[in-house]
Amino acid sequence: ARIRHYKWEVKYEFKSPDCYRKLVIAINGKTPGPTILAQQNDTIIVELKNSLLTENVAIHWHGIRQIGTPWFDGTEGVTQCPILPGETFKYQFVVDRPGTYLYHAHYGMQREAGLYGSIRVSVPDGVSEPFAYDYDRSIILNDWYHKSTYEQATGLSSIPFAWVGEPQSLLIQGKGKFDCASVTQPNVCNATNPECSFYTMTVIPGKTYRLRIASLTALSALSFQIEGHNMTVVEADGHYVEPFVVQNLFIYSGETYSVLVKTDQDPSRNYWATTNVVSRNATASAPPGLAILNYYPNHPKRSPPTTPPSGPFWDDVKPRFQQSLAIKSHRDFVHTIPQTPDRVIVLLNTQNEVDGRRRWSVNNVSYNIPHTPYLIALKQNKTHLFNQAPPPEGYDFVNYDIYKRQNNSNATSSDSIYRLKFNSTVDIILQNANTMVVNNSETHPWHLHGHDFWVLGYGEGKFDINNDPKKYNLVNPIMKNTVPLHPYGWTALRFIADNPGVWAFHCHIESHFYMGMGVVFEEGIEGVGKLPSSIMGCGKTKESHNP
Ligand code: C2O
Ligand code: CU
């Protein structure tokens, strides 16, 4: 195993990823930032210099479990204090599983200012994968707003609530195209800026490409498709999938997939790759994102002679359920799953009003990030720094009507956490419901830090605690770190609480987590080693041990 050393400078810069000029947060001048390339069991060291002038930062390594290094998970308020302007912070951790992962800011709403990138971990030399390919490529899909994250965040926490609305563009590997004709101010939008030329992936005819596709959208659920080419899904969140073929791939924020694409079409032309919004009203949202699949030796900038393929209908939830259900573990890579849980936690997802503010809640509790990170508070026995009452494990199953717009007026906000028994098996049932708008339920991609979980099942409607567990897939469930909770549906997961630390579990929609849609788990805190002093400095972390 090797050490991979990176030096990053994080800085605000003017960029025009979709032709529209705005302030973005770049790493070494780029968004998406540099790709981390490593082999299984390598050690990654990132020396991060915060040059944001007046703003803190923290970076999360999404999908990396941080075994033995829970303090480098990068989650502000949970595992570390934020990095102050002018400071350099050293992240150091081992990538212990091959696969496709991500990194992104985990502080306020900085992620959607452009602070993100890919991590690609390959298998060690001599180890083979259950599929063959000639070339390996990565792309990140994202949605993009022209308003600053501050304007958005302020609106979300204002009375009355001010919603930023739908994104202006969809980006494929950091490139999109906003219609500059609609912009009247001079020098803001320039349709011929090379920064917003189509992302082009050049391919050689007759080959097989492994395309690693990730989504880090702030809001949107997406579909991705390549004109005239099928995709064979082979990896999900770092785990091998029993291969299946799709025409379009549904992908939710925080998910990663590898698909195999054969370049077996007419080689005399180029093809469109497109991404479009699903689950939210696509006619009101950003137009499809476009990229060019360039068959060598055609000119890379030559537009395909066709109109870009339109994706699936945004409001058709059936095919999205179907894809979720189709993702099973590859038969040769099934991780043995405990057949019964030690604890079952039901998490009802609702939209609420707390103290007159619009919030998202879980079991009627809307999550607040504390000032002193839990990891430090717990290690230093400063438990008075957050609410010690355990959060609720369920809700009124029998009487709650998930299809009805509820008042949900009894919601509170809290920074309390779930304390899990070390090495116990925990089931999580995510239950979706109607929002504060009549006849509306949204898609929520839930992401767990520090673990992979087994996906036991998905269902429509209200979870039936007596019968639905009988239908769980305990034979070949996929392991993932992010799963969608579909509108008016439920999703069931199982994980083993075997990673000493404090771990966030939250909706990956940036505004939803900001508005309280998350919980935190603690397990095996006594097994956590000595905390590095670099993660301290905020809240009450500087106080002496004696109360
Ligand atoms: Cu990718 Cu806590 O997030
Ligand atoms: Cu959500």
Give a written overview of the molecule:
The protein has helices at 149-156, 318-326, 374-379, 510-514, and strands at 3-15, 22-27, 36-39, 42-50, 59-62, 88-95, 99-105, 116-122, 135-144, 169-172, 199-203, 208-215, 221-226, 231-236, 239-246, 248-251, 256-262, 271-278, 289-295, 343-354, 357-362, 365-367, 412-414, 418-420, 425-431, 444-448, 453-460, 479-480, 482-485, 489-496, 501-507, 518-523. The chain is globular and about 65 Å long. It has 4 helices and 32 strands. The strands form 7 sheets. A 6-stranded mixed sheet has the order 10-9-12-17-14-15, with no helix packed on it. It is mainly β and 547 residues long. A hairpin with a 6-residue loop joins β1 and β2. The two termini are 44 Å apart. Bound molecules: CU-O-CU linkage (C2O) and copper (II) ion. The site of CU-O-CU linkage (C2O) has 10 residues, from β5 and β31. The site of copper (II) ion has 5 residues, from loops.
Tell how many strands the DSSP assignment holds.
Answer: 32
Low-pLDDT sequence parts: none
Rg on CA atoms, Å: 22 Å
How far apart are the termini? 44 Å
Task: Give a summary of the structure in a few sentences.
The protein is mainly beta. Helix content is 5%, strand content 37%.
Task: Describe the structure using short key phrases.
single chain, 547 residues, six-stranded mixed beta sheet, 4 helices, 37% strand, globular
Topology:
Layout: E1 3-15, E2 22-27, E3 36-39, E4 42-50, E5 59-62, E6 88-95, E7 99-105, E8 116-122, E9 135-144, H1 149-156, E10 169-172, E11 199-203, E12 208-215, E13 221-226, E14 231-236, E15 239-246, E16 248-251, E17 256-262, E18 271-278, E19 289-295, H2 318-326, E20 343-354, E21 357-362, E22 365-367, H3 374-379, E23 412-414, E24 418-420, E25 425-431, E26 444-448, E27 453-460, E28 479-480, E29 482-485, E30 489-496, E31 501-507, H4 510-514, E32 518-523
Parallel strand pairs: 1-4, 3-8, 9-12, 11-19, 20-25, 22-23, 24-32
Antiparallel strand pairs: 1-2, 4-6, 5-7, 7-8, 9-10, 12-17, 13-16, 13-18, 14-15, 14-17, 18-19, 20-21, 25-30, 26-29, 26-31, 27-28, 27-30, 31-32
